[in-house]
Design a protein that fits this description.
372 residues; alpha/beta; Rossmann fold; 2 domains; eleven-stranded mixed sheet; elongated
Length: 372
């Protein structure tokens, strides 16, 4: 496993912290796991700050971002990162000047042996596919049982609610999804993982999750007020500072109540508005048709492919019907459909979508078709 702890500090975006005299905050230890919540208005520079924090860690995992594919900033020529793995949906094909892999094939080793693992909205055919795929990625992180200095991960959540939606993709309701997320966030320290997450307002993230944070970082919040439980901050930093804060400024609050004023440069690789990063980097994306899922009354694409494969092996519709718990007429219909499609088009579109081995192979049958 490569160590990235030796990344040249001179390449990092400058980030200066000035501790307040009466509540002097110790500088964050970027060699230990930590949780950083960044609160601010849209356009206040939250993503740029999360990127600045991510640079100070050994391994970057940037999964959740806006629709403009801002996560791809790590792939720009001005980025200090060059060992990048791009991950995409199972039914998507990516042509890029970096390593690529489908999320369903991703392993913990992949995450640990690349300097950055990155994805973006364009790499998925739909939000539904994206959230389900990214749930697999967080599952890989949960398998991490050991880590050492030089291998500290940083997970960037630029759109934090997307993490809740990914937990819901497994069928959990919102309440259960938030409970699962809270458990996941609690365990990240033990996995050797730091987190940088953004929120538009104080109540945008549940209190239990806020309480897990070692650092809460405030950007420009405009007319909004700090909530009562942290209003003591106004004794040390004037409200006007939060109202008119510049893009490169912040106030950092440590869990013990100590504070610092922060100032940082805009990362050289940060995405500017209106820039098409896919075009700039030279990435092309194609999506297969989305797979139809099976229900009690409908055979999905994967089940169709499995049905054809099983019939090819068993040569008995009755056996296939019993094993898949489908009627004889359903099995007969799908075998006939498969053969007719290959005769007409040269391939079975449903088997092809499901990546079945027999998508261009007609199935020999001597059984009489059953009316469906």
């Amino acid at each position: 496993m490569k160590s990235y702890g030796s990344r040249n500090p001179e390449d990092r975006t400058k980030f200066i912290l000035i501790p307040l005299k009466t509540r002097a905050m110790a500088r964050p230890d970027y060699k230990r796991p930590g949780t950083y919540l960044v609160m601010g208005n849209r356009g206040s520079g939250k993503s740029a700050l999360i990127e600045t924090l991510a640079e100070r860690h050994d391994i970057i995992i940037d999964l959740y971002g806006s629709k403009d594919n801002e996560n791809l900033c790590w792939c720009r020529k001005t980025s200090p990162i060059d060992d990048i793995l791009l991950i995409h949906g199972e039914n998507s094909h990516i042509d890029a000047p970096f390593d690529t892999k489908a999320t369903n094939e991703l392993t913990l080793k992949d995450l640990e042996t690349h300097e950055a693992t990155v994805t973006c909205n364009a790499f998925f055919s739909s939000d539904k596919v994206k959230f389900a795929s990214l749930e697999h990625v967080t599952g890989c992180v949960e398998k991490r049982t050991e880590w050492r200095e030089g291998h500290l991960m940083f997970m960037a959540f630029r759109e934090t609610m997307d993490l809740v939606y990914s937990k819901m993709s497994s069928g959990a309701g919102e309440k259960d999804a938030k409970a699962n997320l809270l458990y996941f966030m609690r365990q990240l320290r033990h996995f050797g993982v730091s987190v940088g997450a953004d929120m538009l307002r104080w109540t945008g993230i549940d209190k239990e999750m806020r309480d897990l944070s070692e650092y809460i970082i405030f950007k420009k919040i405009g007319w909004k007020q700090l909530p009562r439980d942290i209003s003591f901050v106004y004794k040390y930093v004037e409200p006007v500072v939060f109202r008119y804060m510049q893009h490169n400024q912040c106030v950092m609050l440590q869990e013990n109540g100590n504070m610092a004023l922060g100032k940082y440069d805009l990362p050289k690789y940060h995405k500017e508005e209106g820039v098409d990063l896919l075009k700039e980097i030279g990435i092309t994306v194609e999506h297969d048709q989305e797979l139809e899922e099976s229900t009690t009354t409908k055979v999905g694409d994967k089940e169709h492919a499995a049905m054809i494969q099983l019939y090819n092996e068993e040569e008995s519709m009755l056996v296939v019907s019993k094993k898949l718990v489908r009627s004889l007429s359903t099995v007969s219909y799908h075998v006939t459909f498969h053969n007719e499609q290959i005769e007409e088009k040269g391939y079975c579109p449903r088997c092809k979508k499901a990546k079945g081995d027999l998508d261009t192979t007609q199935i020999h049958t001597t059984e009489r078709p059953t009316i469906h």
